[in-house]
Specification:
Blueprint (H helix, E strand, L loop, with lengths): L2 H16 L9 H23 L1 E3 H8 L3 H13 L3 E4 L2 E4 L9 H5 L3 H12 L7 E4 L3 H6 L9 E4 L2 H9 L3 E4 L3 E3 L4 E3 L1 H7 L4 E7 L2 E3 L3 E4 L2 H12 L1 E7 L11 E4 L5 E6 L10 E6 L2
Parallel strand pairs: 4-5, 4-9, 5-6, 9-12, 12-14, 14-15
Antiparallel strand pairs: 1-3, 2-3, 7-8, 10-11, 11-13
Helix pairs in contact: 1-2, 3-4
């Protein structure tokens, strides 16, 4: 099975499970593959929660043999989802450098869903919205209830979710960035000059008192910066793990937008930050 095929199936399975889609396989071999993919997803979720688990613990938790778990871990490591270590495995740590979309799909899913639901509740009828690429903004789409809205995005991943909801959508063109499935480049920037947004929802890799809101890539930083400049009420959507991280490119100051996050952390200076959190610490 090719890595590309595996990646597509994992992404599709994650969407299906979250949306309670009944998976019906017509052949026994395909059914076995789907059980394997479900098991892989559960392994990634467990390692997210516990950071490290032994082969024995995973086998007991999933009620399969140690040999099966070892094969699963080998496949997951080959696809850069986990790291095998000392008779078990650990989750790949979140880094300021942008990880592939597949890895981000499995990380902090509960927090992203909470943020997505909160962000979607801020959209009002007739809004003109920018939706940034990313797994957090993708989580917003199922919870959008506002009517007669117009959404502009440069995310290939978001198109089907938006159109399935019957949301009027315009996709800005550009060069495809494989890791994020985003359209970027000078064409993207030029097309943005044609739009004025009532609200935007922009992702960030870092939130820092000195560096502001930041992202690893210059070309994506330019797009985020321009979107915020062309928006009446800009929002940043990022979970609390991004606090006190600083990526290479600052695209906005903390005072330039309102942050939507899952919770407030203790070790951060909030004096310059406008934020909405689902819970406070």
């Amino acid at each position: 099975m090719s890595n590309r095929y595996l990646h597509l199936l994992l992404i599709w399975l994650d969407y299906a499970l979250k949306n309670h889609i009944l998976i019906v396989m017509s052949e026994k071999k395909e059914s076995q593959h789907m059980k394997q993919f479900q098991r892989w997803q559960e392994i990634v979720n467990l390692l997210q929660e516990y950071e490290y688990l032994s082969v024995e613990a995973l086998a007991k938790r999933l009620d399969v043999s140690i040999a099966t778990i070892r094969r699963d871990l080998a496949s997951l490591e080959d696809n850069q989802l986990i790291i095998r270590k000392r008779g078990g495995a650990k989750v790949r740590k979140e880094e300021v450098d942008e990880p592939p979309l597949l890895i981000r799909t499995f990380k902090r899913t509960n927090e992203k869903e909470t943020i997505g639901k909160l962000a979607a509740s801020l959209i009002q009828d007739h809004d003109v919205i920018w939706l940034d690429p990313g797994t957090t903004t993708l989580q917003m789409i199922p919870y959008i209830c506002a009517k007669d809205i117009f959404v502009v995005t440069n995310s290939i991943k978001h198109i089907s979710a938006l159109t399935e909801k019957g949301i009027q959508t315009f996709v800005i063109g550009g060069n495809v960035k494989e890791t994020t499935q985003a359209l970027i480049g000078q064409t993207t920037l030029r097309m943005l000059d044609e739009f004025n947004f009532t609200k935007c929802f922009v992702g960030a890799s870092g939130i820092d008192n000195v560096g502001g809101f930041s992202t690893p890539q210059m070309n994506e930083g330019e797009i985020k910066r321009k979107v915020i400049q062309r928006t009446i009420t800009p929002y940043i959507v990022a979970d609390s793990s991004k606090f006190n991280l600083r990526a290479a490119i600052t695209f906005a100051r903390l005072t330039d937008a309102t942050l939507i996050t899952d919770k407030k952390i203790k070790d951060f200076d909030y004096s310059q930050l406008k934020f909405i959190a689902s819970e406070n610490e």
